[in-house]
């Protein structure tokens, strides 16, 4: 197992890198107060996923291009998500004059 | 016109129904107009019925094979129900009789109900009743008949409770409805069984299939089905032990008693058994049951009528008794005699009820016959017509009742039922006695100074006269020397029996003795009943209290039904409500308030827990199975 | 991927990606966070180049480093009113969040290393844009159109959400 982490760069290197990036993004999304920061961290997590996809494309199915096509769709969805997410943040801000997630506990009874 | 009437017999029930709709939706504010609509529709129905009856009674082919036409009501795989018309001599006779009597009674009602609250509503109900009854008569299908059967039950309920400001009227209406409901349940079960066994509810088809019932089922099952079907008539026609509603039904207006609870609706049960006679003839036990029920009811009700004091109540028990006669006739296998008695009874019993109504109007609803007396001087028409009815029911020739009762008696004897014959003959004697007891007490004897009777207006007396005329001549269509009736209305072959002079003379003698005894006891020696009552106190009390049947039912209700209800109530309160409903509620509520603290409302908190879950699932998958873990995490292994 | 430049490039890019991502999460000034975010995105684009996905690398720079970062800056500009120096703080649950994030990343990395990947030696064709374009308009034409529709819906939704609410509504 450790052998696969040899000097030669293989798929495992990319997957480990993307796992770490995903963890950082997850930490930020769970631990940051600012709603804009949560959105930013979600983008980090999406990027981690994209690295995965492109690595699979390179090492597993280089001719089918499934990974890259998937990655493009993920980018598309991410762009849409950022747009709508920011609009929501602005709408909430207009109502509450705050983007601190600790101030929003509307889900509570 | 004859042709048209026969092929459009469905118009007869439709017209009163339209009258009902018109009165309810349009003409209710105008009383006289409503009455005219109602009477007009019924009279038009009578004209069509008369033409149709003329057509039926001139074409011999219809005796064996009835004229039928129908439309599909609904169908699903294995179940096809038609609504249609079945026109044969029996139904044509019924159509004619019902429309005739109903028209006369509705005309009478214009006078009787004058000034009553709900005048238009009364006529609307009467029209609806007419529609249902006529539909019942012409039905070609048992389900169709059942709908009409419930329709007449509904109208009976509405009309018994017509004076709904009186508690007794409301109670009587409920009693009638519930009692008939119990009986109808049996009928419904019987119909279901017929549909399941024979695959049809068409009366004609059932007749063909039941003739060879061994192909479908065994005799025991068919007997059970016949008994179930017979339950319906027991309730509707007031046979023992479900007769209790009929005397109480006299709470309704008198025309209702005359039309529904004497002349038409209560004979629906007899008519149904007559329609299904082919089934009862196949299973002798069920037929025996019909005969015994009929004879017993006849004697039983007549004995109660001996001691009653209210005029309409006596007539009600008399009706039950006469219905017993009809059932007895069916039980000994004669459609002819049963329908013949139904026909004559309709006239003389309607007559007596209407006359009683006339008396009640004159005396401001004082109903006790002991408080009447000498009414014939002030009310000659009412008194005379009532006496005609009394002669008819007592079986004095040539009045209508004589011929039909005589036929039943002689058939019972020749059919080999000596016990039933004895019961029926005794009933004939009692009938003559109690009916003339009523007449002597109410119309003869001393006048009571506190009464100021007046003869009723012509709108009431003319129907009385017509019905009296019919009570006089209605039986002449079926005398032993002119057996027109038996030739047309029959089941099976026509036997022309020679006149049985023994029975005829016996029944006349019984009637005359009954009347004579009543004369002796209530005109010559008025205190005779008092002395007899003293002498036979227990018997008198038993009869006066109607054998305590109502009390037995009340006891049954109060102890058994209420006891069971009480037990169920406690079960409901403590087990269903206590443990299941409130228990589950309490568990849910307590769990909820315990879990409430986990509901922080913070999105990131939820996401954290969510990822904890993801972790847990991933770890479980990674440990338990390499294959699922590979699917989740690695894709390709 | 055995040549020394590729190896060096991978470790260098990985270092930049992880380092700048950590800075994004840890810094307290929201504007700085967004700037470091742009660095992360560009480094990821470099990683795509390393993986022979040149078209995707361009898309990454255009969409992420360009559009998304600019959008974030706009959001910061439209919402932040308080002190910018402490505009990006941790909440109360950051310890447990760190634990969960660490465990997730560790488990994921562990499973990635444990799994025996069947990799191929076939190279990626050099002209990826052409191949992607062909696939997009043939095999994946329906998802392609749906994605277009999604963008349109998101556009309209964002406009409606962010629109000024009129007083009389």
Helical fraction of chain B equals over 70%
By CATH, the architecture of the domain at 1-81 in chain C is named Up-down Bundle
What radius of gyration of chain B results from the CA coordinates?
Answer: 31 Å
Q: Describe the biggest sheet of chain C?
A: none
CA-based gyration radius of chain C: 21 Å
Spell the H/E element sequence of chain C.
Answer: HHHHHH
Outline type of chain C: globular
Mean pLDDT of chain B: 86
Low-confidence stretches of chain C: none
Range of strand content of chain C: under 5%
Give the integer mean of the pLDDT values of chain C: 87
Strand content bin of chain B: under 5%
What CATH first level of the domain at 1-81 in chain C would be assigned? Mainly Alpha
N-C termini distance of chain B: 94 Å
Major sheet description of chain B: 2 strands, antiparallel
Characterise this structure.
The complex is a heterotrimer of chains A (109), B (637) and C (169). Chain A contains 3 helices and no strands. With 109 residues, chain A is mainly α. Chain A has a single domain, classed as Helix Hairpins. The longest helix of chain A is centred in the last third of the chain and has 31 residues, at 66-96. Residues 1-5 of chain A have low confidence and may be disordered. With 637 residues, chain B is mainly alpha-helical. Chain B has a two-stranded antiparallel sheet. In chain B, a hairpin with a 2-residue loop joins strand 1 (67-76) and strand 2. The radius of gyration of chain B is 31 Å and the shape is globular. Chain C has 169 residues and is mainly α. Chain C starts with a helix and ends in a 7-residue tail after the last helix. The interface between A and C is large, with 77 and 91 residues.
């Amino acid at each position: 197992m450790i052998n696969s982490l040899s000097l030669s760069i293989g798929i495992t290197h990319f997957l480990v890198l993307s796992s770490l990036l995903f963890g950082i993004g997850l930490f930020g999304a769970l631990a940051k107060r600012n709603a804009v920061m949560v959105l930013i961290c979600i983008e980090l997590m999406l990027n981690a996923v994209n690295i995965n996809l492109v690595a699979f494309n390179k090492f597993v199915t280089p001719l089918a291009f499934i990974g890259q096509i998937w990655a493009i769709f993920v980018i598309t969805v991410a762009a849409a998500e950022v747009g709508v997410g920011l609009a929501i943040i602005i709408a909430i801000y207009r109502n509450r004059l705050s983007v601190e997630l600790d101030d929003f506990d509307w889900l509570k009874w | 016109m004859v042709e048209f009437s026969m092929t459009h017999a469905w118009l007869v029930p439709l017209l009163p129904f339209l009258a009902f709709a018109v009165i309810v939706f349009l003409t209710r504010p105008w009383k006289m107009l409503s009455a005219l609509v109602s009477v007009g529709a019924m009279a038009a129905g009578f004209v069509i019925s008369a033409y149709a009856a003329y057509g039926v009674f001139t074409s011999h082919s219809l005796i064996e094979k009835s004229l039928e036409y129908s439309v599909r009501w609904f169908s699903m795989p294995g179940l096809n129900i038609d609504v249609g018309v079945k026109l044969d001599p029996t139904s044509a006779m019924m159509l004619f009789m019902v429309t005739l009597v109903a028209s006369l009674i509705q005309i009478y009602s214009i006078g009787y109900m004058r000034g009553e609250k709900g005048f238009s509503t009364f006529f609307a109900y009467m029209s609806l009743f007419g529609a249902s009854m006529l539909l019942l008569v012409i039905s070609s299908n048992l389900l169709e008949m059942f709908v009409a059967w419930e329709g007449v039950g509904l109208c009976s309920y509405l009309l018994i409770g017509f004076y709904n400001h009186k508690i007794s009227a409301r109670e009587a209406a409920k009693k009638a409805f519930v009692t008939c409901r119990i009986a109808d349940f049996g009928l419904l079960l019987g119909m279901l069984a017929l549909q399941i066994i024979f695959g049809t509810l068409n009366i004609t088809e059932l007749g063909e299939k039941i003739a060879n019932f061994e192909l479908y089922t065994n005799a025991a099952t068919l007997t059970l089905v016949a008994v179930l079907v017979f339950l319906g008539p027991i309730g509707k026609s007031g046979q023992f032990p479900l007769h209790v509603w009929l005397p109480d039904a006299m709470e309704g207006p008198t025309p209702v008693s005359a039309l529904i609870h004497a002349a038409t609706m209560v004979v629906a049960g007899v008519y149904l058994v007559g329609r299904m006679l082919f089934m009862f003839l196949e299973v002798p036990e069920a037929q025996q049951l019909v005969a015994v029920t009929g004879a017993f009811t006849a004697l039983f009700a007549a004995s109660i009528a001996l001691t009653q004091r209210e005029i309409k109540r006596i007539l009600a028990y008399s009706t039950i008794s006469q219905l017993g006669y009809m059932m007895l006739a069916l039980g000994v296998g004669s459609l002819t005699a049963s329908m013949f008695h139904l026909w004559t009874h309709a006239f003389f019993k309607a007559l007596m009820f209407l006359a009683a109504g006339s008396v009640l109007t004159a005396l401001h609803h004082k109903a006790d016959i002991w408080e009447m007396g000498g009414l014939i001087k002030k009310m000659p028409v009412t008194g005379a017509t009532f006496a005609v009815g009394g002669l008819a029911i007592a079986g004095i020739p040539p009045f209508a009742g004589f011929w039909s009762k005589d036929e039943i008696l002689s058939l019972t004897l020749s059919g080999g039922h000596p016990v039933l014959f004895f019961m029926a003959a005794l009933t004939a004697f009692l009938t003559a006695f109690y009916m003339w007891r009523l007449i002597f007490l109410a119309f003869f004897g001393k006048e009571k100074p506190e009464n100021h009777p007046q003869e009723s207006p012509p709108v009431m007396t003319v129907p009385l006269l017509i019905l009296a005329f019919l009570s006089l001549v209605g039986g002449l269509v079926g005398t032993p020397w002119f057996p027109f009736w038996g030739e047309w209305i029959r089941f099976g072959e026509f036997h022309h029996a020679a006149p049985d002079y023994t029975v005829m003379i016996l029944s006349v003698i019984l009637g005359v003795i009954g009347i004579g005894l009543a004369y002796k006891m209530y005109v010559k020696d008025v205190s005779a009943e008092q002395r007899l009552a003293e002498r036979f106190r227990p018997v008198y009390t038993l009869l006066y209290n109607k054998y305590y049947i109502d009390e037995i039912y009340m006891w049954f209700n109060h102890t058994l039904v209420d006891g069971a209800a009480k037990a169920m109530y406690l079960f409901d309160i403590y087990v269903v409500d206590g443990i299941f409903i409130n228990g589950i509620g309490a568990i849910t509520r307590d769990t909820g308030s315990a879990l409430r603290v986990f509901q922080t409302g913070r999105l990131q908190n939820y996401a954290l827990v969510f990822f904890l879950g993801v972790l847990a699932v991933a770890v479980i998958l990674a440990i338990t199975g390499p294959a699922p873990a590979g699917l989740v995490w690695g894709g390709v292994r | 991927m055995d040549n020394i430049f590729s190896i060096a490039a991978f470790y260098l890019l990985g270092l930049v990606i992880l380092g700048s991502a950590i800075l994004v999460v840890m810094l307290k000034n929201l504007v700085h966070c967004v700037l470091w975010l742009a660095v992360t995105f560009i480094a990821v684009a470099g990683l795509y180049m390393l993986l022979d996905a040149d078209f995707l690398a361009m898309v990454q720079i255009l969409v992420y480093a360009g559009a998304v970062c600019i959008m974030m800056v706009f959001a910061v500009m439209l919402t932040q009113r308080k002190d910018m120096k402490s505009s990006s703080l941790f909440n109360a649950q950051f310890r447990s969040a760190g634990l969960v994030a660490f465990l997730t990343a560790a488990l994921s990395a562990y499973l990635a290393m444990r799994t025996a990947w069947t990799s191929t030696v076939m190279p990626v064709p050099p002209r990826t844009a052409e191949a992607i374009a062909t696939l997009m308009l043939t095999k994946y034409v329906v998802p392609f159109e749906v994605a277009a529709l999604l963008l349109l819906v998101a556009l309209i939704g964002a406009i409606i959400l962010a629109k000024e609410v009129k007083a009389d509504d």
